[in-house]
Design goal:
There is one protein chain. By secondary structure, the protein is an alpha/beta fold. The protein contains six helices and five strands. It has one domain: Cobalt-precorrin-4 Transmethylase, domain 1. About 45% of the residues lie in helices and about 15% in strands. Strands 3-2-4-1-5 form a five-stranded parallel sheet, sandwiched between helices. Helix 2 links the parallel strand 2 and strand 3.
Length: about 150
């Protein structure tokens, strides 16, 4: 089973879609708590439309997003704090429900890609989400570069 992650920071819509298509992604799972973006083409409605036109599905799992205090820590460059806050969030009922749903999507043999803003997976909660899935399923994990 294949699982990818991608951050759109610094990417254009075209470079983002190309990275997904080159990797054979079937479904993008948006793991942002708030699926809005000041970057044109990456807010939920426009993003899902762009993906659909490219033949890629879209699901938003809000429960796997980083809580507000974690996002604030990340913006301040306090990545260790963000990870600690996110680990606490990941055991909540809402996060666990969406984690089960994500695991089922990955199990369906689609190539699933977790989406967030942060370009560096080492600084993004999506790596923790991917690790949680990998603890349940044997996945081949790839971090995509959408910058081009």
């Amino acid at each position: 089973m294949e699982l990818a992650t991608v951050g759109y920071e610094g990417a254009t819509v075209d470079s983002f879609l190309k990275a997904l298509q080159d990797a054979g992604v079937d479904l993008v799972v948006d793991v942002r708590a708030v699926a809005n973006s000041r970057k044109p083409g990456f807010a939920k409605t426009r993003l899902s439309s762009n993906l659909r036109k490219a033949g890629i599905g879209y699901v938003h799992l809000r429960g796997l997003g980083t809580p507000a205090e974690g996002r604030a820590a990340a913006r301040a460059g306090r990545h260790a704090d963000m990870f600690a806050i996110y680990r606490e969030h990941l055991v909540t009922a809402v996060a666990q429900t969406d984690l089960v749903r994500l695991t089922e999507l990955v199990r369906s043999e689609q190539t699933v890609c977790l989406l967030c803003l942060e370009s560096d997976p080492a600084h993004c909660h999506r790596s923790l989400v991917a690790d949680a899935v990998a603890s349940e399923l044997p996945v081949q994990l790839t971090h995509l570069n959408a910058v081009g």
